[in-house]
């Protein structure tokens, strides 16, 4: 069966001079040390140590071979979003990043699936950049789950999501810039607690605001990290919708009736948690995601899926690759560029 990882990050080799396209400080950029290690930089400040799979496609492909991964959907590292910058500069930055991601994926276009990024702080420019990127060969778009205090149900972001539906461009939504960071000092708590909360906030916001009623049903939308804490707390949200009119004021249906409007990845790291996630979302709405190449990701891709109780071989095939093949399939109205990966149910693995 084909194994497709929908959640894998890249930081192409962009120096500080490239970062000045976005801001005068020259951020973000990548410092490569020449020994297989590097540092993600924010202006002059060190942000996070990284290893060469993040910027070297040959190393990534070798890692994929070793892990039995056939295809990765390659998306930018959230530090690169640039949502706080001037929109026009952010659009130029996204065009540059998207060009570099295409160059990176050209190392093996049959296995590396490029996802673009957009200046989400400006809906019109975001739509323009996404349209250009799709025409150039990108097979999806990677966005953060909010822009400042604007959540995914913000009218401008809803406008952008509707545009992606019209383009037939799948959307991968990633938590970032976590809420409550001043109370989550140390121990990577923003990643351990803030990220699940951010993702649940995004999903419930789209449901309870009525945004899903305004977004075309054709939109292909996936939330990273298993949808955060959403699946475990869905019963609480349904109970609140039934009992309080303030909760259901803008949503004609309870939250559980919107689970067919989006996908989630499998990055929950516990077979019992994945079993709950599949029960909540359905076997056709969960896709393998590893968070490669970061240390908090799944180091043995697909191990949680293979160990998940109650799945038969057909179910595991859907989670490991079949669902992703459908999710990233070219829209019927437009043929995929010749260099784009052709995703199939069967493959080399």
Automatic annotation (TrEMBL):
<dbReference type="InterPro" id="IPR006680">
    <property type="entry name" value="Amidohydro-rel"/>
</dbReference>
<comment type="subunit">
    <text>Monomer.</text>
</comment>
<comment type="pathway">
    <text>Secondary metabolite metabolism; quinolate metabolism.</text>
</comment>
<keyword id="KW-0862">Zinc</keyword>
<keyword id="KW-0479">Metal-binding</keyword>
<comment type="similarity">
    <text>Belongs to the metallo-dependent hydrolases superfamily. ACMSD family.</text>
</comment>
<dbReference type="Pfam" id="PF04909">
    <property type="entry name" value="Amidohydro_2"/>
</dbReference>
<keyword id="KW-0210">Decarboxylase</keyword>
<keyword id="KW-0456">Lyase</keyword>
<dbReference type="InterPro" id="IPR032465">
    <property type="entry name" value="ACMSD"/>
</dbReference>
<dbReference type="InterPro" id="IPR032466">
    <property type="entry name" value="Metal_Hydrolase"/>
</dbReference>
<feature type="domain" description="Amidohydrolase-related">
    <location>
        <begin position="4"/>
        <end position="328"/>
    </location>
</feature>
<protein>
    <recommendedName>
        <fullName>2-amino-3-carboxymuconate-6-semialdehyde decarboxylase</fullName>
        <ecNumber>4.1.1.45</ecNumber>
    </recommendedName>
</protein>
């Amino acid at each position: 069966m084909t194994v497709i990882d929908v959640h894998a990050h890249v930081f192409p080799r962009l120096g500080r001079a490239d970062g000045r396209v976005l801001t005068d400080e020259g951020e973000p950029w990548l410092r490569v040390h020449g020994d297989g290690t590097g540092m993600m930089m924010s202006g002059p400040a060190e942000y996070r140590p990284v290893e060469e799979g993040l910027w070297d496609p040959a190393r990534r492909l070798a890692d994929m071979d070793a892990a039995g991964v056939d295809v990765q959907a390659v998306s930018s590292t959230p530090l690169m979003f640039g949502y706080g910058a001037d929109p026009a500069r952010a659009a130029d930055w996204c065009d540059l990043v998207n060009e570099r991601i295409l160059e990176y994926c050209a190392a093996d276009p049959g296995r590396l699936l490029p996802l673009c990024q957009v200046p989400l702080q400006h809906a019109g420019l975001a739509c323009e950049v996404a349209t250009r990127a799709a025409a150039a060969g990108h097979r999806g778009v990677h966005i953060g789950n909010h822009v400042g205090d604007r959540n995914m149900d913000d009218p401008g972001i809803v406008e952008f999501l509707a545009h992606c539906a019209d383009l037939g461009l799948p959307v991968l939504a990633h938590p970032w810039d976590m809420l409550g960071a001043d109370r989550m000092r140390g121990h990577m708590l923003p990643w351990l607690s803030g990220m699940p909360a951010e993702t649940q906030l995004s999903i419930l916001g789209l449901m309870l605001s009525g945004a899903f009623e305004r977004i075309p049903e054709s939109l292909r939308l996936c939330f990273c990290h298993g949808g955060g804490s959403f699946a475990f707390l869905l019963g609480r949200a349904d109970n609140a919708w039934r009992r309080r009119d303030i909760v259901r004021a803008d949503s004609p249906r309870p939250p559980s009736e919107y689970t067919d409007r989006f996908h989630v990845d499998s990055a929950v790291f516990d077979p019992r948690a994945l079993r709950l996630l599949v029960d909540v979302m359905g076997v056709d709405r969960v896709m393998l995601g590893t968070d490669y190449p970061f240390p908090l990701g799944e180091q043995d891709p697909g191990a949680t899926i293979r160990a998940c109780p109650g799945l038969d071989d057909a179910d595991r095939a859907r989670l490991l690759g079949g669902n992703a093949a459908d999710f990233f399939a070219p829209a019927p109205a437009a043929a995929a560029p010749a260099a784009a990966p052709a995703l199939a149910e069967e493959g080399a693995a």
